[in-house]
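Appendix B. Extra example for self-study. Work through it before the problem class; the solution is given directly after the inputs so you can check yourself.
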Amino acid sequence: MKSVASDQTLNQVERFSPPNIDGFEIKGRPFIGLGLLISTLIGTLAVLIYLGAWASLDRIENRAQAAGITESQAEGQWWEDGLIIACPLH
Amino acid sequence: MRNAALWLDSKFGFEEHTIAHYAWVIVAIAGVVQMVGAAIRMAFGVLVDPLVAAFGWSPGSIGLAYALMSIVTALSSPMAGWLGNRFGARRTMFGGTILFFIGMMWTSQTKEIWELYAAYGIVFGVSQALLLVPVVPAVAAWFRRHLGLGTGIMMVSWSLGPALVVQALAVLFATLGWSQAFIVVGVVGTATLLVILLFFKNTPEDAGKIAYGTKDTDNPLITKGNVFVSAQKEFQGFVYKTNAFWNLINIHFLGCAGHAVILVGIIPLAISKGLGPLTAAGVLTTISIVSMSTRFAAPVLSEKISAKAVMFVSFFGQGVGVFLLLTADSTLDFYIFAVVWAIPYGGEGTAFPVMIRKYFGHTPMGTTYGWQLLGAGLGMALGGVVPGLVFDITGGYTWAIILSALFSLAGAAAILLLENTKKQLIPNWPEMEIKPEEVAESAGITASPRPAAGD
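Solution. Structure tokens for the complete assembly:
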């Protein structure tokens, strides 16, 4: 019985109301929505880079203290150096 | 079963709603799919110690598998939503079930860390997207009206289910060991999914039934065939051109980042303030239980009153509520926070399907919802990282709390910039030129009793 129902439904599908979209268009581009999304992404990246650079400096400082050397002598990991270079505030 | 439902209908005098409708079976199946799909994600914490003991891997490197899985799930979500639209939720979830089985078996046999990343991080990550993304649009297709009610009940089961599964998994891990537990959960989970998918129907038309809330004056919606495929492409093109589509991704990201910080950081924060581990865990449990109320209420109210207003109040409450943590230093303070904050938190993420319906009508929402879950997944991943990072730097959680508030309040501000939900942004989805009864009667079947649905 169910398969009959499905067949009937499939046949009826051809009897559809064409969508009333003649002439419908969305003028303009979604600047507000996209702008907000991009602003959020940039803001989030900025916060992550800032926190990451801060954490990296802390780690390098701790290693330097433990080894009894200055911070400039202590070697950073590649990602620590990268975050410090990327952050203009560190 | 159906007779029992009809009896309950008459017993409780339901007029506008009915229990005797297949839509509720679909909602129940959605709850089970979520329970199985989320099982191992929720139990990851239980997995870390056994892997450290067995292989000597560091907790950090094991935790990377969880982060990878979260990101892979988020990135796969738009694809999963599109697959659900194009090939149907049932086939997509079947694909997710196969990957679930492979992921579970492979993880159980893991010997190297890269295998954990591949099996748990990638295979299970994709599987989770295929299981969890298409099911919500499929439930939506079963509700011509009252989607808020259907969504609310589904969302409650989504928070109750994993809580139960985690307890069962903890017992399995303790009695069988991690490897055997993965095999058992993989086999039982896969069998469960395969059985319930037998009863799952993508649309009411597939089951020869009528969507919940259909009125006598409604024509059935187009749900298959070439017309469906071409209309879907055209309508999705309209959706991409709206501000709401992009802003909702942004809002979901901000909301999830906001509460993930708290969900991940609340136990270590409470312990750092002198609470015992069990008491601290109770704070999280309280949040889960109290939030169920608004998980149900938010979508219902969104449909009845205003989706935009409900979402704004939830985001604003979630953002302002976390400031209670700045002065919390006793057990009572933390439990008051849990009750007060859980109310807006529960309503934060559950109204999105209703919002999509308001803006885009009955256009299949798989792709749109998938993109929103991409935002949500990335927000959860970000929010999960922030507390640990902030604690490493400052030795406390104050800045993590402030960041959480900023994320949620930015989301609230973005909601204010959404279009009015009273006006649909794109044309109505095409309908068949026949009445629902004609389909049912010509096929010789009895349609499910329909509620005398009003808007």
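Self-check: Chain B touches chain A through 57 residues (CB under 8 Å). If your reasoning did not lead you there, revisit section 3.
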